[in-house]
Amino acid sequence: MWSIISIVFVGLIAGAIARLLHPGRDPMSIWMTALLGIAGSFLGGLIGSLIWHPKGGSFFQPAGLLLSVLGAFLLLWLWRKAHPRPV
Fold it and tell me: Residue 47, class by beta-carbon neighbours within 10 Å (0-12 exposed, 13-18 middle, 19+ buried)?
């Protein structure tokens, strides 16, 4: 139970930081921000596991939150490119 809560919490933080780093209007609810951060965490974890090769099946990465924010930022950028908003 606590692992699900921590995943949502870290996802919310990563998504919020990514949205702060990528300026512009984006009407996204708090739940969509959390989902963006969670998906970014998975993407960042995948990139981190390819770079650092975790030992013993551990998914902990040295730069976990940083890679989560980077992954969420990349997903937010791709989302905005795929769905441009009229000016």
Answer: middle
CB within 8 A of 10, min separation 6: which ones? 37, 38, 41, 64, 65, 68
Cα 36 to Cα 30: distance, rounded to the nearest angstrom? 10
CA-to-CA distance for 43 and 85, rounded, in angstroms?
Answer: 25
Q: Do residues 16 and 37 touch, judged by C-beta distance below 8 A? A: yes
Structure confidence by residue, pLDDT tens digits, 14-71: 888 888 888 777 777 888 888 888 888 888 777 777 777 666 655 555 567 788 888 8
List of residues 6+ apart from 63 with CB closer than 8 A:
48
Q: What is the sign of the dihedral through the CA atoms of 16, 20, 21 and 23? A: positive
